[in-house]
Amino acid sequence: MSDTILEVKNLTKHFKTKRGMLHAVDGINFSVKRGQTLGLVGESGCGKTTVGRTLLRLIEPTSGEIIFEGKNITKISLNKLRHVRKDMQLIFQDPYSSLDPRKTVSQIISEPIIANKIFKSSEEIHARVAELMATVGLAARLFNTYPHELDGGRRQRIGIARALAMEPKFIVCDEPVSALDVSIQAQILNLLKELQAEFNLSYIFITHDLSVVNHFSDEIAVMYLGKIVEKAPAEQLFKNPLHPYTQALLSAIPIPELGVKKKRILLKGEITSPINPPEECRFKKRCVYAYDKCDKHPDLVEISPDHYISCHLVEKN
Amino acid sequence: MDKNNLVLDVKNLFVRYETEDGIVRAVNGLNLQIERGKAIGLVGETGAGKTTTALSLLRLIPKPPGVEECDKMVLDGLDMLSLSVKELEKVRGKDISMIFQDPMTALNPVFTVGDQIAESIFLHEEVTYAEARKRAIEMLEVVGIPGERANEYPHQFSGGMKQRVVIAIALACHPKLLIADEPTTALDVTIQAQVLELMKDLRKQYNTSLIMITHDLGIVAEICDEVAVMYSGNIVEKGTLEDVFNKTKHPYTEGLFNSLPNINDRKAMLTPIKGLMPDPTNIPVGCPFHPRCPYMDEDCKKPQWERAISDTHYVRCSAYDRPGFHIKRRER
What we know:
The complex is a heterodimer. Chain A has helices spanning 48-55, 78-85, 105-115, 122-135, 152-164, 182-199, 210-216, 234-239, 244-251, 313-316, and strands at 4-17, 20-33, 37-41, 63-68, 71-72, 88-91, 170-174, 202-207, 219-224, 227-233, 301-304, 307-309. Chain A is an alpha/beta fold. In chain A, the strands form two sheets. Chain A has an eight-stranded mixed β-sheet, with helices on both faces. A four-stranded antiparallel β-sheet of chain A has the order 2-1-4-5. In chain A, a hairpin with a 2-residue loop joins β4 and β5. Chain B is α/β, with parallel strands linked by helices. In chain B, β5 (72-75) and β6 (78-79) form a beta hairpin. The two termini of chain B are 23 Å apart. The mean pLDDT of chain B is 90. Chain A binds chain B through residues 43-44, 151, 153, 181-187, 189-190, 208, 210-212, 214-216, 234-235, 238, 248-249, 251-258, 260, 264, 266-267, 270-271, and chain B through 45-46, 158, 160-161, 188-194, 196-197, 215-222, 241-242, 245-246, 255-263, 266, 268-273, 276-277, 332.
């Protein structure tokens, strides 16, 4: 069994809009190691959710390759994809809209089991649902309740139980705690970590919250307007961010401690439109270091072991 | 605290919503004093009563179903409880104003942003509309938007820019007290940093007192002087930043800090608070936090009151009556 569970090569997704081509994801490369977490961070509109959905082919990629467990799944038929998807699951951001309000907790969790015809008898299904509910910390008495009767944290647990139902190897967590209060957020993060250790799960953890991603990931990729601008092991990225955007992003995190002196890098302006973006570096307009070379978008290069950056400044220094 | 220089003095505020499903007790006997020019962070999780408190200070609680009871609410010498609706209209937007969480819905889509800022100035100050427009354009520039854009409509601005417009409206008449309800929650971090920086500057420039409602202790550390932690409709701990962050006293405040990922120590395990926020229609007797509190004893089920730790630091927790009691979080 290879160490890498998922590999993405040159993944691209362009959407056709009235005003032109929207470059949501623009030729990105990364891989996820078995049993580890890759954090995908970036601000709204940078394409992180599109990446997550394209990996599962919920959105068909425009070009590029998705290699899961050594198999190229980019072009396989939907019928074959069904089998692959048992191993790949998704946890959604909003525990309010991702659960069918007309189904009970047990119906929601048993849906993938029934759809994939894993168990035939209702006793077996019942037992499996009860087991899953116990795994994610949902009390057995909630078996026949409806989502609207439950709080956000419990609803997110339902979503996690549903994702675990097929015993997946790989889960895309799309902002799984953003809608939750801090005390509940901590409960869910701990749960996801325990499950990872127990079932040797690999995660892609999509979020805009940098302190959460630092806590949760082994490796972090920073996205800006459809491109990965920096990728490094979590500790390395936080200790030694190299891309000007990563530096600004990290300096913008409000830290709940007193006396932390930090130099804040305030970015001018806002994210430019991803529709028909110019050839230049996507970050050029907001970058304080921009110079003539930045008219062409830089490639992502490895500058120290496992530390990748897409910036012309590297050559300069 | 300088009791003679208060911009806001609230005593014993209760707000409840009488609904068909029961009585929602949103604010339960809250006391709050703010010194002139100071910024206080009102921190708490969903349902703690932060927004209801803010709306009550503006006397904007919808009645019915809302019912308010309060012993004292004085804004800069003005008895807010005795004012008529007409008089309140003169105060809101002039002496006290509010920035709402969602800039997308706080602005009127069919008026230009220039007109929306001018409206507030025209209503509250004795100026002609042309002058109000002129001041509106100045205000736009103060918040970092080019004056030419005054004739544009909200949909032509990005989220961060819209929040700047909202801030311009709120500060146009130099209010004495500004209430900001999660002003940056809908924004990205880099834009949030810009907006917070702007609020910090303007507050100094106009000497405005600020109530910053937020769930983010990081934001509080950055722009506030004091913190009040709310739980289940009451302030459970209040003090200076130093008091609350470094000499934490209330078990709930401790739980909040333990739930946050530590950016400097990524291996540290999170310690969440067990259980859930109480249902506001059925708040536990005594300290509302006692069912979730690791230090609970029988006294916690009796009525609670504030205990002074120092001149600036208050905690609403009966455990401090026990000799030698302290929470696990160490002083820093």
